[in-house]
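pipeline/complex-builder :: batch 7 item 3
reading input block
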Amino acid sequence: MSYDFPDHLGHFGPYGGQFVAETLMEPLRELADAYFRLKDDPAFLAEFDRDLADYVGRPSPLYHAERLTKSWGGAEVWLKREDLNHTGAHKVNNTVGQALLAKHLGKTRIIAETGAGQHGVASATIAARLGLKCVVYMGAEDVERQSPNVYRMKLLGAEVRPVHSGTKTLKDAMNEALRDWVTNVDDTFYVIGTVAGPHPYPLLVRDFQSVIGREVIAQSQTKFGVLPDALVACVGGGSNAIGLFHPFIGHPQVAMYGVEAGGKGVETSEHAAPLSAGRPGVLHGNRTYIMADDNGQILGTHSISAGLDYPGVGPEHSWLKDSGRVQYVAANDDEALASFHELTRMEGIIPALESAHALAYAKKLAPQLGAGKRMVVNLSGRGDKDIFTIARMEGITLS
Amino acid sequence: MSRIEKTFADLKAAGRKALIPYITAGDPHPDHTVALMHALVRGGADIIELGVPFSDPMADGPTIQLACERALQHGTGLWQILDMVAEFRRTDADTPVVLMGYLNPIEMLGVEAFAVRAEQSGVDGVLIVDLTVEEADGYLPVLRRYGLDSIFLLAPTSPEARVAAVARQASGYLYYVSLKGVTGAATLDIASVARQLDMIRRHTALPLAVGFGIRDAASAKAVGQVADGVIVGSALVAEIERGQDRAESLPGVLQEKLANLREALDSLPPTHANGIQANISVSPKA
């Protein structure tokens, strides 16, 4: 199948585009121009690949989880170990790429929004390495529930600004980062952490993250000689999922499943699953599935995982949903929590709560696919940042 | 001739500048909005920009964010706001009303359904902050069909080619954002505003109104010397915030505040040509 989205204005079918205040249109054009100039430039790509190899530690392994496979009873379970990347998640693939763009554009200051803190840490890390000033916006509620990452960012020299407006979570952090950018466009590069936002962000973040899927294609050839039968990834904004899925879009024999945060259940009002239970609308610079009420106001979301607690999703996912190429499902808080413990005890890998959502659905999928099939689950991040949350839920106080 | 066109034509004939206040509909409570609109007219408003509250106002500073939150606490929705305009129109047939907000609330209702009701209610124009000309094809013909002017923003970062493209799509007036930043920001560079307005005028005959960063008589007067209209938002919304517990006094407070700005603008020597340029150096108080 031919797939050449987005168009030159960033549209994936009816989704995507550029819905921002006028002040940002010129900076977005500059960014798009720079990206289109560099994206096929051998020197730029070599620099990116070198950073991914020597700084991030790529390629990340494709690991056969044998005990999990046996326990689930069905398809072979392979884990794409993005948790082993420097800084502990897939987020760094994108920040390495965007930092190179910032350097080419001569920007001296980077800003970022963060939910779980993984993207904030990845941004602070790359800023430290390049000697750039870094400000990270984080919802006040997330600052509370992800305090280890807040401290990590501070150690790295970043300034973390808690955001007290709205629901005090990721969406509000993104509003605040956009306000900062509009005020400081001359020297500031906005490092968006996911495949959402105005064009060209969904495109360039996807391209930087697609290293995940490209590696899986090569690794599956080596390890089992064919492509996997199914891919499973969690979807908040959707960058780890797009990174895994995108190189497989043209391989129709590979089924793909995006797992949203079902919170207390998609049938309740407390979830973060716009693709499963939302509707198309416009938020943060793009048209996409969002969670909004009949008056168009954005709804509060709920998820045990701060990184998935977002009322929108990257526009390309909206297109992939409508086109039927990817199936979008949801896993609830308690299912994710059970999978968090299961992987930890069964394979000795502590997953991020975000990634645990993908595992929760994979567990259901394994027997359906059946023995002899293979599925790749994107283990998008490690769970060190979540152990305080888990301990608190279990009534344990860590000093 | 639309109500907005007529307003600017009359002002031009009189050598005066447009005073355009902004308030958020439903702030501090939906019951007060119509009274506040009438108070603005008594204080000297030529056009009213009525904000449609949104949960995620990404181009607005803290003052208007809080106004949105106050309005949304009372469930202020777009249909209700159109009813407010209709009520305002019952006793004011002349003052143009422009709805200003973000796209998603309109998108949820459907642009056609919105435009039908907006026209019936007596709305004159629409300014959708996050609707760029690149994305506007599906909206502008519909708004035009129902006689609604499409007001667009221009910014200090807008290059000349973009200015031309935006000016071609706009009607009513153009809203020049005086600074890089969000609403309610503190500093304003009149000389650079004047230069940008000169450039914009080479591409359009539409009136140019300037907003962001205008908060008192001095800044209003400075901007009035170079623009066709002066937009004041956060400074008024801050008065509403301060007086929200004494809502019955708010009409008087807003009227007085606006009258003060009106007086400053009217103290300018009458201009009969667009844009008398002077070498002005004013640094408005923060």
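note: Chain A has 16 helices and 14 strands.
queue -> next item
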